[in-house]
Amino acid sequence: MSLKRCEICNTEEAKYRCPCCMKYSCSLVCVKQHKTTYNCNGVREKTAFVSINQFSDLNLLSDYRFLEDVGRMADRAARDGASHRPRTNKFVNVLRNRARRYNIHLKILPVGFTKRRENSTFFNHKEKKFYWHLKLIFPHSHAKFTEKRVPDDKPLCDVLKRYVDPQESDPVICQRLKIYTTSPPSDIQLLMKVEIGSPNFNRYEELDASKGLLDNLRGKTIIEYPSLHVVLKKFKTDMAVLGYSKNKDAEKPSKDLVKESSSEEEGEIRDSS
Length: 273
Fold this sequence. Notes:
By secondary structure, the protein is α/β, with parallel strands linked by helices. It contains nine helices and eleven strands. Strands 4, 5, 6, 7, 8, 10 and 11 form a seven-stranded mixed beta sheet that branches. The chain is globular, with a radius of gyration of 24 Å. It starts with 15 loop residues before the first strand and ends with a helix.
């Protein structure tokens, strides 16, 4: 490594090598710069493909340790009493029944799924209010954030302020979401994936940022908790939004998508009846 030069500044001798992208660097400054430039997290990918010509004893040892970790995780899961509990309990049933009263189709996953384990949504009987577990996805910045205990009547625009408002957002978050914080609020669009439909074709519904989750989720299907995609209208995406055409102006409704949506709703009504 001493014969290698830093691939970031190209002046000093290399002292470090990233286990993820294998880039050489000479200092902490160059290490941080390479993570930003190459969008690298610095974590070695344990399942990365290695050709037979490059396979060495170190790769064999790495695979062996990876299998040991998998074995330990499987054994720990088998000993975990929570994974052997019934799939439904009183809390889940109450949560689902309360959501049904507000015309929200809440679906609960079996125990063991990641979304089931991380979901912190609960219903406050005293306040008659949902406190949602909410995931915010910012595709243009490749970032995801989780909000817990979000009141169902809190406007979504207020929830987004700590992320997209340059005055109220955290400096670290503001820098990571720079493309959002420098855009006008009118350019920000909230989308939620339609859970019921063809698995080969993802469609999204636009939410009203001036309203809370309770009003936005009425008549919709949620799996465990809502996941919202925060997108910018000025960037073209491959997201098919209900009521909007991909080939025409965004303000003109797409008849095919509306017709398809209405036919699905009729099918759901027949199934429920």
